Each structure stands twice: as structure tokens, then as C-alpha cells.
Amino acid sequence: MRTTVEISDEQHRALTSIASRRGLRGFSALVQEAIDSYLADLRADEVEVLLAFEGVLDEEQADEVRSRIEAARQTWRAS
Fold first, then answer.
1. Centroid of chain to Cα 15
2. Counting beta carbons within 10 angstroms of the beta carbon of residue 27, is it exposed (0 to 12), middle (13 to 18) or buried (19 or more)?
3. How far is CA 46 from CA 31, 35, 53, in A?
4. Residues in the chain where the model's pLDDT stays below 50
5. What is the 3-state secondary structure (H, E, C) of 9-64?
6. What is the pLDDT of residue 51?
7. Tell me, what's the pLDDT at 69?
8. Phi and psi for 65 in degrees, rounded to 5?
9. pTM
10. Contact 30, 24 (CB under 8 A)
11. Where are the domains of the chain?
């Protein structure tokens, strides 16, 4: 599945460098590896709690959350 993830320029340079050293064309495999590692470190009950949130917002609430997130992103600064 494809998705968009916001990363800093520094993170992009680091991932590109690591991928290059591993002989990879891009860094998708590195991101998948990192996500797998993160999920493996979660306790089973934490995963269940997170998955339980799926579908708790109706479409109007979800739109409001998306709108607030987008407004917050406008004030973010990459460090």
C-alpha cells in the first residue's frame, strides 16, 4: 500500500544514504523495516487499543480532525 509520510530534509538525506550503501534504489524497504521494528516493540494490548480506534469518528468529525491537522502543519518548522 502506498502512503505519504512527511519527513525532514535531514531524514531524507540519511535514508537515501543508507539505502545507497545497501544497494537499494529507494528507501521504502528501510521505512518498512523501521515500522516492523516499531510494531514488534509494542505490547499486544497496545496494538489492540490502537486498532480499536478505527472507525470511532464519523465523517464530519474526521474532516474536522484533518482540517486541524492541516492547520497545525502550516506552523511546523523542520529542524
1. 14
2. buried
3. 21, 15, 11
4. none
5. HHHHHHHHHHHHHCCCCCCHHHHHHHHHHHHHHCCHHHHHHHHHCCCCCCHHHHHH
6. 82
7. 85
8. -65, -45
9. 0.54
10. yes
11. 9-73
Cα angle 61-73-55, degrees, rounded to a multiple of 5 = 25
CA dist 39 and 2 (Å) reads: 18
Task: List C-alpha distances in Å: 54 to 2, 29, 47, 64.
Answer: 19, 26, 12, 16
Sign of the CA dihedral with 24 first, then 32, 4, and 15 last: negative
What pLDDT score does 79 carry? Answer: 54
Q: What is the pLDDT of residue 78?
A: 60
Burial of residue 30 (CB within 10 Å: 0-12, 13-18, 19+) is: middle
pLDDT for residue 10 = 93
The pLDDT value recorded for residue 34 is 93
pLDDT, position 21: 95
